[in-house]
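Lab notebook, design round three. We kept the backbone fixed and only want residue identities now. Task for the bench partner: fill in a sequence for the structure below.
Input structure tokens:
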């Protein structure tokens, strides 16, 4: 599927004012103690609930689909050779057994041919440069790259979390869903952070089916839309895997008139990208490049669990496409007035 580049509406229409104090710096404990703003699409009405109430808010027979991608500890701190100046790499995706695509800082000093020393005989040599400031690196180490990340890597917290430069040990577990299993994301599919094993068991006991797919989240997912005059940026493709079992479950739910509930904008993008003309989804792997904006005809997703997103972001545009721009921004304004917590470690919405 080709990237979408046609104009969208004025980007100012996807803006809102957020007091910095409402940007969540820490997750709540337990995970499902977060607040949940329930937005009814037909009426535009909202209600303040708790995420722990989700089993009572969903319906027996609902098909809940989650993103099982696992966040890599992909942020590596090191020193440039030979002068020892501080450097940072964010490994994005593997290109070979030892080669990765990466973001590098400081970009002006991380030129082709430079090596970054990571410690204990481990270094990453920059061997190529690409678009949007990307670098190609070769990791030289006595262990596989995945073990290098476990030994030396940090969780890639977003920059609006004050301690993103020095994450706490707890962030390695909390910036991860309880059902994560497939390595590959460099940002968490944050709507899933609210789920606990007990909550998932309660959903199943209430007749809600839970199925998984994988979309590996890249940094572009959270990049604000900055094109002038409402012209959309291209969304770089992200790797998707829709298992046959999940595709079949979604197809059954659609044929039987049961709702498909997507956990997160990443799951929504994956399902809508994989949609077939009948409203089912095609199983298999691919690269999702679908930019969902107002005017998109949703073929699969009937309800959405999502966090509160940055102004002018493609994620907020997607939610507005699903729920309507005015009801979404009205709900966001209520959330601000009511003191909801925003962004990755913040509270959630149920839109249905």
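Proposed sequence:
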């Amino acid at each position: 599927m080709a990237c979408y580049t046609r104009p969208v509406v004025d980007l100012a229409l996807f803006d809102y004012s957020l007091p910095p104090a409402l940007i969540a710096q820490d997750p709540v404990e337990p995970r499902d103690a977060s607040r949940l703003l329930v937005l009814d699409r037909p009426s535009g009405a909202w209600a303040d609930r708790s995420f722990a109430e989700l089993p009572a808010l969903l319906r027996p027979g609902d098909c809940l689909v989650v993103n099982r991608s696992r966040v890599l500890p992909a942020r590596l701190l090191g020193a440039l050779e030979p002068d020892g100046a501080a450097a940072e790499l964010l490994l994005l995706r593997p290109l070979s057994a030892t080669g990765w695509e990466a973001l590098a800082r400081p970009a002006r000093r991380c030129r082709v041919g430079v090596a970054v020393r990571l410690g204990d005989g481990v270094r990453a040599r920059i061997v190529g440069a690409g678009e949007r400031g990307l670098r190609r690196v070769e990791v030289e180490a006595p262990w596989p790259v995945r073990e290098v990340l476990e030994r030396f890597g940090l969780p890639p917290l977003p920059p609006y979390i004050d301690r993103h430069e020095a994450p706490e040990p707890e962030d390695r577990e909390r910036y991860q869903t309880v059902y994560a299993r497939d390595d590959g994301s460099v940002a968490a599919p944050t709507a899933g952070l609210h789920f606990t094993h007990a909550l998932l068991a309660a959903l199943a006991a209430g007749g809600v089916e839970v199925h998984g797919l994988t979309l590996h989240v890249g940094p572009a997912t959270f990049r604000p839309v900055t094109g002038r005059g409402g012209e959309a940026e291209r969304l770089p493709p992200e790797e998707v895997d829709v298992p046959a079992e999940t595709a079949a479950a979604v197809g059954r739910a659609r044929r039987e008139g049961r709702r498909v509930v997507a956990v997160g904008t990443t799951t929504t993008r994956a399902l809508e990208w994989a949609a077939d003309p009948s409203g089912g989804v095609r199983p298999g792997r691919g690269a999702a490049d679908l930019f969902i904006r107002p005017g998109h005809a949703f073929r699969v997703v009937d309800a959405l669990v999502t966090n509160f997103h940055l102004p002018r972001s493609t994620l907020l545009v997607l939610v507005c496409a699903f729920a309507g721009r005015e009801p979404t921004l009205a709900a966001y304004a209520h959330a601000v007035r009511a003191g909801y917590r925003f962004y990755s470690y913040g509270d959630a919405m149920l839109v249905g």
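Keep this in mind before ordering anything: Residues 75-152 form a domain with the Thrombin, subunit H fold (CATH 2.40.10.240).
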